[in-house]
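Subject: mismatched residue count in predicted assembly?

I count 562 residues in my input, but I want to confirm that the predicted structure covers every chain. Input:
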Amino acid sequence: MKNTLSLNTGTIEGKLNPNNEFSLSHKLYRKYKRNQKSKIYHLSTIWGFTIFVSLWSWFGTNFNMASIFVSLGGMMEFIMIDLLPPNFAAAPRMMKPMLDTIYMSIVGVFISIFLSVIFAILASKTTTPNPLVAKFFKNLISLIRSLPSIILGIFLVATFGLGTFTGALALGISGVGMLGKAYVESLEEIDRGQIEALQSVGASWFQIIGQGVLPQFKPSFIAWSLYQVDLNIRDSAILGMIGAGGLGLTLMGHVRLFQYQRASTAIILIFILIIVVEYITAKIRERLI
Amino acid sequence: MIRSTSKYPNKQKNYFAKGFLVFTGILFIFSFLQLDFTMDKLINGFERGGFMLSRMFPPVITDLNALLGAAIESIQVAVVGTLLGVIFSLILSVFAAKNTSPHIILSYLVKGFAGFVRAIPALIWAIMFIVAVGLGPSAGIMALAINSIGMLVKVYAESIEEMDKGVIEALRATGASPFQVVMQGILPAVMSIFISWSVFRLDINIRYAAILGVVGAGGIGAELSRYTRASNFDQALGVTIIIFLMVIAVEKITVYIKEQLDLPTTALVADDE
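Triage response: the counts match. Full output below for your records.
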């Protein structure tokens, strides 16, 4: 009520005296009100859209409350009867696939780092030789990012055949999506003063990269690259399912043969591997940075 | 994640860094030698790659309606999976956050559960649910929901723990019930960061939903694996393009929603992606 009142007076006063200070604040108030109105309109549209999409998906997939309990019950039954107890007698034979998973991840990370550093230097605003080149490589990185690694894996398996080398290649290429983006962002965040200082003394492009950019880029480079190792361990467990070797392949094999107690051993090994690798990379990160 | 200060002295750090560099070099060469890499394989691969490319281009989409139907199913699976994950995480995170949990042991239990769930990749959950409840979207939805819980409980609980203590204490002092504390005190304070994480998780889930079909959980991934098994690579590429467009479209929508709601940005590093 109070707002309406002041608004009314505002209109009168503003009409009477356009130079009045009050008319300005009144205009601002009107603008604020209008903005708020459009914001509320926007918010209700977005919430309405969200609720609509949720309902549409809920009924579209024929999902209901009962299926939650049915599937959770089925899962419990499956875990209790089929998965447990894990058959640890199969564990020694899984050591080779487990090592394969680690080797694949490591080689994959090196491939990603190699490609990402080149792509990122060409793509980031700070270091690119040409804005068009930057645009091209930025798009290339986001293209790779949008493509799930398993799809890339499917095409690579068809090309290079089954095996761990294919897995490493798939991890290496799909890692560029994540690592390249992270590198580009860190390169664009660095202090430009040092680069300008080098430019002003007539340093060449390679000298600027070597002396001005890389030293500042090092901490984030190490952090992101180590993070990629974590991601690769997870991904390589998945890539095995399409025949790229490693623990995922072992797991899929046992699931297909209904040997669930051996499959649960593989799951436990994947779990331990992920935890241990995350712990080690966290420790290395702490010491290096 | 990135810290400039270290608890180790500089010189010692330098030795460690140099040693580490040498070590990684050796590790790379050793790992590379362990792979089943041969020169023949590489040369054959390139020959076959040329052949593959000629088979893949131009991409073919024979049954657009069926593919779009499958893509829509994937999106729906991702949305319902995210929705369930968000609802369960909302409830669990109240018990997981130290400042709102009824008992500290309960907090550790829920956090441990979330950590365990998070460490097992989504596709492995999918396989387990397929065996447990059978093929179809339900398995995919549950796998995504469970995997989302692993991540969301962690980030939700962290944001509850970071919030102002005074709000909760003030409400408790007025004799509010635990439910009232959650609805009146916690939810309004953490709402925007929760929405932000949930939208981020939807992005991740769309990517997973697209590939769940590869292990048999329905959606567009099933079409992809059907065509690659039959070596119809031109059609497989067509499916890949649709998946790609689907992921991009959903990402554009979520970015738009984030902008409109003026949400706080979430870290790029959150979970596997």
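Chain A touches chain B through 80 residues (CB under 8 Å). Marking this ticket as 'not a bug'.
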